[in-house]
Amino acid sequence: MRATIASLVSNALLLTQQAAAAPTDTDTWNETTVDISGDSSADSFSVASISDWTYRRWNGANYACKCYPGDPCWPSTLQWNLLNATVGGNLQISIPPAASCYNTFQGLLGNISTYNAAQCADVHANYASEQWQIDLPTAGLWTYFTNDTCRPTTKPTDSCTGGYFPTIYIKAKTIAHIQAGILFAKNNNLRLIIRNTGHDFLGRSVGWGALVINTHGFKDISLTNSYRGACNYTGSAITVGAGVQAFEALSKLHSLSPPKIMVTGECATVGVAGGLVQGGGHGPLTNFYGFLADTALEFQVITADGALRTANAKTNPDLFWALRGGGPSAFGVIVQATYKTFDDYSSSGTTFALGPANVNNNDTLWWDAIAKFHSYSNHFVDNGLYIYYELYPGLSFRVQPVVGVNKTAAQLEAVLQPLFNDWTAMGLTFDKTTTNYSTFYELYNALFESEVAGDSALTGGWAFGKTDVAINNAGIIDAFKNVLNNGALLVGHMWNGGHGLPQSQWADSAINLRFRNVSDKLITILPLSGNAPLAEKEAAQRVLTDVVDGGLRAAGPNGAAYINEADPFQPNWQTAFWGTNYPKLLQLRQKWDPTGVFYSVSTPGTEKWEQIEYSTRLCKKL
């Protein structure tokens, strides 16, 4: 299946056909007639010299684009071979996970014979496994943004094209490999993607024609009981490499005597040193300690100039602030992160559900029950609970789990009892299970379920302020009905990012201050095949942005959107994601990445960047 870098990159210089290439109904234009000196306005990056860019015209506008196979600015075979030598032979062609089920993979760099019966059987057995996909170098766990052009098949003669998968990747083994990749992308104006796990709902781990730097191999973990650093904190801490996942860090902490914990996401496979912390990082412990970003003590980070820098409260403090919630893949590549850790406590968890049988298939009664549940959002988070729930069409409501950290089962049920009393008075029947655990770690492993990879959907979301719940819960439930009536699903996370964190620390990170006063953060999921017709995709995006999420935004004017789990194409995303912090983040993006080496959609300074020609080329509008 493997092909040499030299042969395929040479092919790219002479391409006469590209199976996954951009459409042919576009025009190049005479760059000498355009001022490409760069736009110095605060909402864009400067443009490099003419020779570094490909110039395109799309939908009546002019663009300066990154370099792709077949462009005059695409690096030569010699340049690629030199990069391969620099990174220790770890430069490889990116091939979709299911390519082994096809006779031929048709990529931007040429065709590769890929069929392998044993590997194809492995694909069919494991395609839905998160960890299997994570351990691949360039896979996207959810496939909508890959364009789904190479899914598992039993027909090897079918077509497997690259879709929106990256083209080449570096499986980095050292910090120097990452630095070399960043500088190569910068000097050759390539689209660059940083990937650890690929656990991303917004397609930021994949991109047509891109160079990927895979950091998943950086698995070092070290612990201390008495941190000595740039801040006044002297407690316990953990230092993790860029590839460490939550389950690995938590397992290491649990092995201590006494055991420790740290803030992570609710999904155990998510990495803890990359996009999670750069987006903020909420999870079951957010009510107690804030976001993962709030617990960060120091980063080792490679910036757009290829330099390895320390970022903490005293060294590069502006970069330290921005890296804590200011946007994934926006300010640098975190290769090492140090976080506070905390004592682990005995905890309790509850699960319950309402289905058609619980309400005698009465739609009105079911929605009344949901409204009652949601009316207690503020009560739940004010009492330190974390709640994960799912709301699906067909009268399907499932809560797994309610988490009571440092609470007995009796204490947890006492907080929930007012809701259960109301449901009983409404004539509902329901089952609930509450269990004591000796540690939070044991609860986490027992009650939080693994997610499924390989699905395709558009993702949006919104968080409701406590004020919204207090004065407009009925309007919120109407918005929930609107979500389900338009074919979408709801996943809720009840927490408050300011509940256990002193107010004096709320502004120490770039996280939107509105998250300090929310009680329910939602993810909306609109199922849609990645290879659906373009018109269908455009229509679905409008439904998600304007109808599904639009109703949530209208019902929750005091809320916010979480950058890692929301619609990046929503109006006023700058304010929705970062609120009053956005102007400062914009200035810092200009300082730390003035030419746009890094990119992920709807992050500070990307206003003029678009993926044109049917979501292929990454370009800046001129």
UniProtKB/TrEMBL annotation:
Cross-referenced Pfam families, in alphabetical order?
A: BBE, FAD_binding_4
Q: Which residues form the signal peptide?
A: 1-21
Q: What Gene Ontology molecular function terms does this protein carry? A: FAD binding; oxidoreductase activity
Identify the residues that the record assigns to the FAD-binding PCMH-type domain, covering every copy. Answer: 162-344
InterPro entries on file: BBE (IPR012951), FAD-bd_PCMH (IPR016166), FAD-bd_PCMH-like_sf (IPR036318), FAD-bd_PCMH_sub2 (IPR016169), FAD-linked_Oxidoreductases_BP (IPR050432), Oxid_FAD_bind_N (IPR006094)
The alphabetized UniProt keywords are:
Oxidoreductase, Signal
The entry's family comment says: Belongs to the oxygen-dependent FAD-linked oxidoreductase family.
| Protein name stated in the entry | FAD-binding PCMH-type domain-containing protein
The scientific name of the source species is Neurospora hispaniola
